[in-house]
Design a protein that fits this description.
The chain has 276 residues and is an alpha/beta fold. It folds into 2 domains: 149 residues, NIF3 (NGG1p interacting factor 3)-like (Udp-n-acetylmuramoylalanyl-d-glutamate--2,6- Diaminopimelate Ligase, Chain: A, domain 1); 114 residues, Udp-n-acetylmuramoylalanyl-d-glutamate--2,6- Diaminopimelate Ligase, Chain: A, domain 1. It contains 12 helices and 9 strands. β7, α11 and β8 form a beta-alpha-beta unit. α4 packs antiparallel against α5 and α7 packs across α12. The two termini are 25 Å apart.
Length: 276
């Protein structure tokens, strides 16, 4: 198995025919027998992995190169999710453009070759698998809710349903209602995961203004949350449920890890992945 085989396995599980822009092989490796997989990878991790005999380090979050520079392109998946839930495409596209304007500035300023250059120097493979894992996780969350929710559910019922997913049971973080009320009707809902990062203010605003009652994010920053409170009320009729970053990321990652192990790869997890 090599790094391309690992990436191909992720794409198959995610049902993706193209490599998303936030996912890349920074330093290819052949004859991979041992891999170390973490949510976030730092320079010291590469040295430790090399010393312990791993052939490749797999990160979830972007590790540089095209995954960092082209990251804003993957945000368009938020528009796809909005459109699938009835938000007019021009509105959805405008929300994404607002996000991209900010993220493009950040990407342009990043030291995009820091980790890849260290991996090359010490001679270890390096890759990141971001959106494919997130898309797997989004689908698990979405399909679990659709399969198990009873008629006329409340927000509480959706949270209880998500807790049937092992990663949410095992995580030290709890699923939180950041806006709205836990006993409010769930109404029309959308899981906004698998689109680069959380949709912040623009995506949630577009959703709430066009008929979606409950949005599921895996995380949100305080500034965006305060603006949503100002627009829709902290305990109003719109609900924002935050499922937890590492727990939500771990759902798709663990699915991939199980597949790779079944194919004979010795793979260890660390750096935040919730073992189940």
């Amino acid at each position: 198995m090599d790094t391309q085989d690992i990436l191909d396995a992720a794409l198959r599980l995610a049902k993706q025919s193209e490599i998303p822009s936030d996912t890349t092989i920074n330093v290819p490796a052949k004859n991979v027998r041992r891999a170390l997989f973490g949510i976030d990878v730092e320079a010291a991790d590469l040295w430790i992995a090399k010393e312990k005999g791993y052939d490749v380090v797999i990160a979830h979050h972007p590790t540089g190169g095209s995954a960092t520079l082209d990251f804003p392109k993957v945000l368009v998946k938020h528009a796809d999710i909005l459109a699938r839930h009835g938000v007019p495409r021009p509105v959805a596209d405008a929300a994404v453009r607002e996000m991209q304007e900010d993220r493009e500035q950040r990407a342009h300023a990043e030291n995009y070759d820091r980790l890849p250059s260290i991996a090359r120097l010490i001679g270890i493979g390096l890759m990141c698998i971001h959106n494919p894992c997130d898309e797997i996780g989004r689908r698990v969350m979405d399909e679990t809710l659709r399969a198990k929710l009873k008629p006329n559910p409340r927000v509480r019922d959706a949270i209880d349903t998500l807790y049937t997913i092992p990663e949410f049971q095992a995580a030290k973080t709890r699923i939180a209602v950041r806006m709205g009320k836990i006993d409010s009707p769930l109404g029309k809902w959308a899981v906004h995961h698998g689109a680069g990062t959380n949709g912040g203010l623009p995506v949630a605003r577009a959703a709430f203004e066009h008929g979606i009652d409950t949005v599921f994010y895996i995380h949100i920053d305080a500034g965006a949350l305060r603006r949503l409170w100002e627009l829709f009320g902290r305990e109003g009729s719109k609900n924002l449920v935050v499922t937890g970053h590492v727990a939500s990321d771990s759902i798709g990652i663990n699915t991939l890890v199980r597949e790779l192990r079944a194919r004979g790869l010795r793979i260890d997890t660390y750096s935040g992945i919730v073992d189940v």
